[in-house]
Amino acid sequence: MIYLIAKYTIPFLLASLFGFLFGRWWTRRNFVDVSETYEQMSISSASNKEQWGKLWHKLDGLDSSVGTTVKNELDALPKPEIPKFDLSGIEKRLGEIEGRFDSIPEAKETDLSDVFNRLGSLDKMLSNIKIPQAANLDPISSKLGFLESSLKAIPTPKEVDL
Using CA atoms in the order 123, 128, 129, 134, what is the torsion angle rounded to 10 degrees? Predict the structure, then answer.
Protein backbone atom coordinates (compact mmCIF):
# COMPACT_ATOMS: atom_id res chain seq x y z
CA MET A 1 0.00 0.00 0.00
CA ILE A 2 2.82 2.40 0.89
CA TYR A 3 4.45 1.54 -2.43
CA LEU A 4 1.30 2.62 -4.32
CA ILE A 5 1.02 5.86 -2.34
CA ALA A 6 4.68 6.67 -3.04
CA LYS A 7 4.29 5.70 -6.69
CA TYR A 8 1.26 7.93 -7.38
CA THR A 9 2.13 10.94 -5.18
CA ILE A 10 4.39 12.62 -7.74
CA PRO A 11 1.92 12.31 -10.68
CA PHE A 12 -0.91 13.66 -8.49
CA LEU A 13 1.22 16.62 -7.37
CA LEU A 14 2.22 17.33 -10.97
CA ALA A 15 -1.39 17.09 -12.15
CA SER A 16 -2.58 19.53 -9.47
CA LEU A 17 0.29 21.95 -10.26
CA PHE A 18 -0.46 21.88 -14.01
CA GLY A 19 -4.19 22.25 -13.29
CA PHE A 20 -3.52 25.33 -11.15
CA LEU A 21 -1.25 26.86 -13.80
CA PHE A 22 -3.77 26.17 -16.56
CA GLY A 23 -6.60 27.67 -14.51
CA ARG A 24 -4.58 30.78 -13.76
CA TRP A 25 -3.64 31.19 -17.45
CA TRP A 26 -7.26 30.68 -18.51
CA THR A 27 -8.71 33.22 -16.06
CA ARG A 28 -6.10 35.85 -16.93
CA ARG A 29 -6.82 35.34 -20.62
CA ASN A 30 -10.60 35.60 -20.20
CA PHE A 31 -10.58 38.42 -17.65
CA VAL A 32 -13.27 41.05 -18.29
CA ASP A 33 -12.56 44.59 -17.18
CA VAL A 34 -15.76 46.04 -15.73
CA SER A 35 -14.32 49.33 -14.49
CA GLU A 36 -15.58 51.26 -17.54
CA THR A 37 -19.06 49.79 -17.16
CA TYR A 38 -19.09 50.70 -13.47
CA GLU A 39 -17.95 54.22 -14.32
CA GLN A 40 -20.76 54.62 -16.87
CA MET A 41 -23.30 53.32 -14.36
CA SER A 42 -22.12 55.73 -11.69
CA ILE A 43 -22.32 58.64 -14.15
CA SER A 44 -25.84 57.70 -15.22
CA SER A 45 -26.98 57.27 -11.62
CA ALA A 46 -25.44 60.62 -10.68
CA SER A 47 -27.56 62.31 -13.33
CA ASN A 48 -30.57 62.03 -11.06
CA LYS A 49 -31.70 65.56 -10.14
CA GLU A 50 -32.27 64.75 -6.48
CA GLN A 51 -28.71 63.49 -6.11
CA TRP A 52 -27.37 66.59 -7.83
CA GLY A 53 -29.49 68.72 -5.50
CA LYS A 54 -28.07 66.98 -2.43
CA LEU A 55 -24.56 67.51 -3.77
CA TRP A 56 -25.17 71.22 -4.40
CA HIS A 57 -26.59 71.56 -0.90
CA LYS A 58 -23.44 69.99 0.58
CA LEU A 59 -21.20 72.22 -1.55
CA ASP A 60 -23.01 75.37 -0.40
CA GLY A 61 -21.70 74.79 3.11
CA LEU A 62 -18.05 74.73 1.94
CA ASP A 63 -15.79 77.69 1.51
CA SER A 64 -17.05 79.76 -1.41
CA SER A 65 -13.86 79.47 -3.50
CA VAL A 66 -13.67 75.68 -3.04
CA GLY A 67 -17.42 75.32 -3.59
CA THR A 68 -17.42 77.32 -6.82
CA THR A 69 -14.36 75.46 -8.10
CA VAL A 70 -16.00 72.13 -7.43
CA LYS A 71 -19.29 73.34 -8.94
CA ASN A 72 -17.48 74.50 -12.07
CA GLU A 73 -15.69 71.14 -12.33
CA LEU A 74 -18.96 69.27 -11.93
CA ASP A 75 -20.70 71.45 -14.48
CA ALA A 76 -17.87 70.75 -16.92
CA LEU A 77 -18.55 67.01 -16.74
CA PRO A 78 -20.44 65.77 -19.79
CA LYS A 79 -24.07 64.98 -19.13
CA PRO A 80 -25.02 61.41 -20.00
CA GLU A 81 -27.25 61.04 -23.01
CA ILE A 82 -30.63 59.44 -22.47
CA PRO A 83 -31.32 57.06 -25.34
CA LYS A 84 -34.57 57.47 -27.22
CA PHE A 85 -36.39 54.33 -28.21
CA ASP A 86 -38.34 53.87 -31.42
CA LEU A 87 -41.62 52.22 -30.38
CA SER A 88 -43.48 52.74 -33.66
CA GLY A 89 -43.22 49.04 -34.60
CA ILE A 90 -44.69 47.95 -31.28
CA GLU A 91 -47.47 50.55 -31.50
CA LYS A 92 -48.31 49.34 -35.02
CA ARG A 93 -48.55 45.69 -33.88
CA LEU A 94 -50.67 46.68 -30.89
CA GLY A 95 -52.97 48.57 -33.25
CA GLU A 96 -53.32 45.46 -35.43
CA ILE A 97 -54.16 43.33 -32.38
CA GLU A 98 -56.70 45.89 -31.21
CA GLY A 99 -58.27 45.85 -34.70
CA ARG A 100 -58.59 42.08 -34.51
CA PHE A 101 -60.39 42.36 -31.19
CA ASP A 102 -62.71 45.02 -32.59
CA SER A 103 -63.62 42.74 -35.50
CA ILE A 104 -64.93 40.01 -33.16
CA PRO A 105 -68.74 40.13 -33.23
CA GLU A 106 -70.61 40.57 -30.00
CA ALA A 107 -72.19 37.47 -28.51
CA LYS A 108 -75.93 37.13 -28.86
CA GLU A 109 -78.16 35.76 -26.15
CA THR A 110 -78.85 32.10 -26.74
CA ASP A 111 -82.35 30.71 -26.26
CA LEU A 112 -81.97 27.69 -23.98
CA SER A 113 -85.65 27.08 -23.30
CA ASP A 114 -85.68 23.87 -25.42
CA VAL A 115 -82.76 22.48 -23.42
CA PHE A 116 -84.49 23.30 -20.15
CA ASN A 117 -87.73 21.68 -21.37
CA ARG A 118 -85.91 18.47 -22.30
CA LEU A 119 -84.09 18.43 -18.96
CA GLY A 120 -87.43 18.86 -17.20
CA SER A 121 -88.95 15.93 -19.11
CA LEU A 122 -85.91 13.76 -18.29
CA ASP A 123 -86.28 14.69 -14.62
CA LYS A 124 -89.96 13.63 -14.69
CA MET A 125 -89.09 10.34 -16.40
CA LEU A 126 -86.38 9.57 -13.84
CA SER A 127 -88.64 10.40 -10.92
CA ASN A 128 -91.29 7.96 -12.28
CA ILE A 129 -88.88 5.01 -12.25
CA LYS A 130 -89.62 2.75 -9.30
CA ILE A 131 -86.58 1.08 -7.81
CA PRO A 132 -87.48 -2.34 -6.36
CA GLN A 133 -86.79 -3.04 -2.74
CA ALA A 134 -84.22 -5.62 -1.76
CA ALA A 135 -84.78 -8.80 -3.74
CA ASN A 136 -84.77 -12.22 -2.08
CA LEU A 137 -81.77 -14.11 -3.48
CA ASP A 138 -81.91 -17.09 -1.13
CA PRO A 139 -83.32 -19.55 -3.71
CA ILE A 140 -80.60 -18.64 -6.19
CA SER A 141 -77.93 -18.94 -3.51
CA SER A 142 -79.16 -22.39 -2.47
CA LYS A 143 -79.21 -23.57 -6.10
CA LEU A 144 -75.62 -22.31 -6.59
CA GLY A 145 -74.55 -24.16 -3.44
CA PHE A 146 -76.19 -27.37 -4.73
CA LEU A 147 -74.43 -26.92 -8.09
CA GLU A 148 -71.06 -26.44 -6.36
CA SER A 149 -71.49 -29.59 -4.25
CA SER A 150 -72.54 -31.55 -7.35
CA LEU A 151 -69.43 -30.45 -9.21
CA LYS A 152 -67.21 -31.48 -6.31
CA ALA A 153 -68.86 -34.91 -6.22
CA ILE A 154 -67.78 -35.70 -9.79
CA PRO A 155 -64.77 -38.01 -9.60
CA THR A 156 -61.62 -36.96 -11.43
CA PRO A 157 -60.56 -39.37 -14.13
CA LYS A 158 -57.48 -41.42 -13.41
CA GLU A 159 -54.58 -41.39 -15.78
CA VAL A 160 -54.71 -44.20 -18.28
CA ASP A 161 -51.50 -46.01 -18.98
CA LEU A 162 -51.57 -47.19 -22.55
Answer: 120
